[in-house]
UniProtKB/TrEMBL annotation:
The lineage of its organism: Bacteria, Bacillati, Bacillota, Clostridia, Lachnospirales. It comes from Anaerotignum neopropionicum. CDD domains: FDH_like (cd05278). The gene is adh. PANTHER family: NADP-DEPENDENT ISOPROPANOL DEHYDROGENASE (PTHR42813:SF4), ZINC-TYPE ALCOHOL DEHYDROGENASE-LIKE (PTHR42813). This is Alcohol dehydrogenase. The keyword S-adenosyl-L-methionine does not apply. GO terms for molecular function: (R,R)-butanediol dehydrogenase activity; alcohol dehydrogenase (NAD+) activity; aldehyde dehydrogenase (NAD+) activity; zinc ion binding.
């Protein structure tokens, strides 16, 4: 009889479900099987559910942000062994193709964003990790699963964004969006010690968290103030030196380039569900530099060291924890931003004799 496990499956047409699925097995000698100990619901999962990720395949197990324990490895896996605690890289990459050798591993011709999108991911009891030597990062003994949980996705995204933002110590930096990825971007931006960090969001609670954590100097709510005017006042009429667009709202791209000073760098981190307009005639003469793209998965080892030495601590993002049994309720709360939810952490499935209510 085939062994099964519980998993969250994308069915298409806005439908996801918790189902019994076959246990994963080694398919290639470079694979590893990981027992998932912590997973999360990510905004990208919501985009998949909404049909905004064309590459996503129906009947795929969701989840690309998770940690776990290696329980099986293929003969070709050299760097990981049974019992290793690992965080999983959102990007699958070979390390050998043209793009990988250039450092653009998110564009790997043999991979890219695969887990939880085109192949089965980590909102499950177990999962298969292809190209495991590149796709896993060891978790040190003194780092908890939850401290390492965001390393492979949203923290890697924020870290990558900050690294390409060309931030200088005298800069005024604006971050649009104080959601999970925005907060990770703020944590990474602070490593560069800019003179002023301004966060913009419609949630005062999320901005309050950013300020409490020492991640932002100024908080602006566009429902309460004219953000463009306020930023001009705060920058002696120049505009922001660096802008990070992490919100992905209907108007946030337009706001990003408008609040940037001439010759600024604008980093586009958000994944948009609708096409955006680039009004070149309006921005002519501002000489802006736009940087875009998916997370660069090259920095996971460096990020783990930052977490280990406590330069970055993302545990403040975790507002909810519940077993895989309750994941559908988790999706409802996370998607609708209810109950102050920032990140919903999925703990292992509990069998009926353990899980009550």
């Amino acid at each position: 009889m085939e062994k099964t496990m519980k998993a969250v499956v994308y069915k298409g047409n806005g439908v996801i479900s918790l189902e019994d699925r076959p246990m994963p097995v080694i398919e290639k000698d470079t694979d590893a099987i990981v027992r998932v100990t912590r997973s999360t619901i990510c905004s990208s999962d919501i985009h998949i559910k909404h049909g905004a990720v064309p590459r996503a395949k129906e009947n795929t197990i969701l989840g690309h942000e998770f940690v776990g324990e290696v329980v099986e490895v293929g003969e070709g896996v050299k760097h990981f062994h049974l019992g290793d605690r690992v965080s999983v890289n959102v990007e699958t990459f070979c390390g050998e193709c043209f793009f990988c050798k250039q450092g653009y591993v998110n564009n790997c011709i043999h991979g890219g964003w695969e887990l939880g999108c085109r192949i089965d991911g980590g909102q499950a009891e177990f999962t298969r990790i292809p190209m495991a030597d590149q796709g896993l990062t060891k978790i040190p003994e003194d780092v908890s699963d939850e401290a390492a949980l965001f390393n492979g996705d949203i923290l890697a995204t924020g870290y990558w964004a900050a690294s390409i933002g060309e931030i200088k110590p005298a800069d005024t930096v604006v971050v649009l969006g104080a959601g999970p990825t925005g907060l990770c971007a703020l944590m990474s931006i602070k490593l560069y010690s800019p003179a002023m960090v301004i966060v913009v969001d419609i949630s005062n609670d999320r901005m309050a968290l950013a300020k409490e954590q020492g991640l932002a100097d100024i908080c602006l709510n566009p429902l309460e103030v004219n953000v463009g005017e306020e930023i001009l006042k705060l920058t002696q009429g120049r505009g922001a030196d660096r802008v990070f667009e992490v919100a992905g709202g209907e108007n946030t791209f337009q706001l990003a380039w408008k609040v940037a000073r001439p010759n600024a760098v604008v980093v586009l981190v958000a994944l948009y569900e609708k096409e955006q307009t680039l009004p070149l005639h309006q921005m002519y003469g501002k000489n802006l530099v736009f940087k875009t793209g998916g997370v660069d998965a090259n920095s996971c080892d460096d990020i783990m060291k930052m977490v280990q030495c406590k330069k970055i601590d993302t545990r403040c993002l975790i507002t909810h924890r519940a077993p895989l049994n309750d994941v559908m309720e988790g999706y409802r709360i996370f998607e609708n931003k209810l109950d102050g939810c920032i990140k919903w952490v999925i703990t292992p499935y509990e069998r009926d004799e353990i899980h009550k209510g």
